[in-house]
UniProtKB/TrEMBL annotation:
Name under which the protein is recorded: Flagellar basal-body rod protein FlgG
InterPro entries hit by this protein: Flag_bb_rod_N (IPR001444), Flagellar_FlgE/F/G (IPR020013), Flg_bb/hook_C_dom (IPR010930), FlgE/F/G-like (IPR037925), LlgE_F_G-like_D1 (IPR053967)
Location of the Flagellar basal-body/hook protein C-terminal domain: 217-260
Keywords: Bacterial flagellum, Cell projection, Cilium, Flagellum
Species for this entry: Lentibacillus persicus
Length: 267
């Protein structure tokens, strides 16, 4: 019976964590470039149950041999194995702001591949983002909303010299003095990247393959790929599953109470 407590409790914890992930998705439904998290539930290893018994062997000494008959498998609960981001392209909307850039995927050589802008965090390390909500700081550098430098294809901060610049569809930032190719990175397996917060990803990404195609749209932003209606539906389903496990836990608790207070009294 105690094992039933653990099974029901693990189900409640898993649904609570799923609710947290879905709530975070809904709260970022309007965040540019946000990629929705998909909680992956996984079952704990199954246990094969046996009925313990004895088999009498008709010998002069009357030997009893263990005879265990398989009853069947028993699941011991579930847990949230990991949150997998959904890297599908979000809707692109025009903003009319010249520093806003939307990265639009074309044909990519890998099914799990994706493209990202590269930025430099406060520690000087490269990070990747789909959020093209950029601006120009007081020194004339292109930065994101956190103040991180946007990088070019050589890994250097992009110096625009001001707000007057143009970005071509192939990702080249044109100023009055020079043309600067933006640093667009390609991850062949996006699932190996990890979210770091503020729309940033960390992991392994490299140069864009020659066979990959993409475009950059100036004055536009890629929106979040969160489906708010679907997320609300999933939250309701998760809440009902939480309540179901809660009722099971309550039933086990009442049974244990009777075992302690009533069965012991009969003895």
């Amino acid at each position: 019976m105690l094992r039933g407590f653990y099974t029901a409790a693990s189900g409640m914890i898993a649904q609570q964590r799923q609710q947290e992930a879905l709530s975070n998705n809904i709260s970022n439904a309007q965040t540019p470039g946000y990629k929705a998290d998909q909680p992956a539930l996984r079952a704990f290893p199954e246990m094969l149950m046996y009925q313990m018994g004895n088999q009498h062997v008709p010998t002069s000494r009357g030997v009893n041999l263990p005879d265990n008959q398989p009853v069947g498998p028993m699941n011991t609960g579930v847990y949230v194995h990991e949150n997998l981001p959904d890297y599908s392209q979000g809707d692109v909307r025009e903003t009319g702001v010249s520093t806003d850039l939307a990265l639009i995927n074309g044909n990519l050589p890998d099914a799990a591949g994706n493209l990202f802008f590269t930025v430099q965090n406060e520690d000087g390390e490269e990070r990747y983002t789909r959020n093209g909500n950029f601006t120009v700081d007081g020194a004339g550098f292109l930065v994101n909303t956190e103040g991180y430098y946007v990088l070019d294809d050589t890994g250097a901060p992009v110096q625009t010299g001001g707000m007057e610049f143009n970005v071509t569809e192939d990702g080249v930032l044109q100023t009055a003095d020079e043309n600067i190719p933006l640093g667009v990175a390609y991850a062949a397996n996006s699932n190996q990247l990890a979210k770091e917060g503020d729309g940033l990803f960390t992991g392994e990404a490299g140069a864009v393959p020659a066979e990959a195609t993409f475009s950059v749209q100036q004055g536009a932003l890629e929106g979040s790929n969160v489906d708010s209606a679907q997320s609300m539906t999933q939250m309701m389903e998760s809440y009902r599953m939480f309540e179901t496990n809660q009722r099971v836990l309550k039933a086990y608790d009442e049974s244990m109470g009777k075992a302690v207070s009533e069965i012991a009294r009969l003895g």
